[in-house]
C-alpha cells in the first residue's frame, strides 16, 4: 500500500471553512483506480493545521491520479484561504504492517 500525506497550516482563521470543504468534498478521487480511502485530520493542539492522508494500492495509481485530476480536486478550496509559508509538506509512505 502507498500513502500520500499532505500537511498544511492555515494562516487566516479559515479553519472552519476548510473543514467544511473537506466534509462536503465532491469525492472525485473516490472512483480513481487504485484509490482506497482518505483521512483528513486536525491535531487537537493546533486547529489550524490539516493532515490529509490518501491510501492507494500502489504509487503508480497515485501518480496517474495526481497528473490527471489534481487541479479539479482542489476546486473546492475556500476563496481567500492563506497558508503559513514553509508549513506545507508532502510526504510519501509505504505501509509495512498493521
Task: Write a concise synopsis of the structure shown.
The chain is of the alpha+beta class and 98 residues long. The chain has 2 helices and 4 strands; from the N terminus they run E-H-E-E-H-E. It has a single domain, classed as Alpha-Beta Plaits.
Q: Topology, please?
A:
Elements lengths: L1 E8 L5 H9 L11 E7 L7 E8 L2 H15 L15 E6 L4
Antiparallel strand pairs: 1-3, 1-4, 2-3
What does this structure look like?
Keywords: Monooxygenase, Oxidoreductase. The longest helix is centred in the C-terminal third of the chain and has 15 residues, at 59-73. The protein has one domain (2-94): Alpha-Beta Plaits, CATH 3.30.70.100. It starts with a strand and ends with a strand. It has a four-stranded antiparallel beta sheet with strand order 2-3-1-4. The protein has helices at residues 15-23, 59-73, and strands spanning 2-9, 35-41, 49-56, 89-94. It is of the alpha+beta class. It is built from two helices and four strands, in the order βαββαβ.
Strand content: 25-35%
- The strands making up the biggest β-sheet line up spatially as 2-3-1-4
Give helix and strand order, one letter per element, not per position: EHEEHE
* Span between termini: 11 Å
Percent range for helical residues? 10-25%
Give the count of structural domains.
Answer: 1
What's the pLDDT, averaged over the residues? 90
The CATH topology is given as Alpha-Beta Plaits
Please identify the top-level CATH class: Alpha Beta
Organism: Pontibacter chinhatensis
Protein name: Heme-degrading monooxygenase HmoA
GO molecular function: monooxygenase activity
Keywords: Monooxygenase, Oxidoreductase
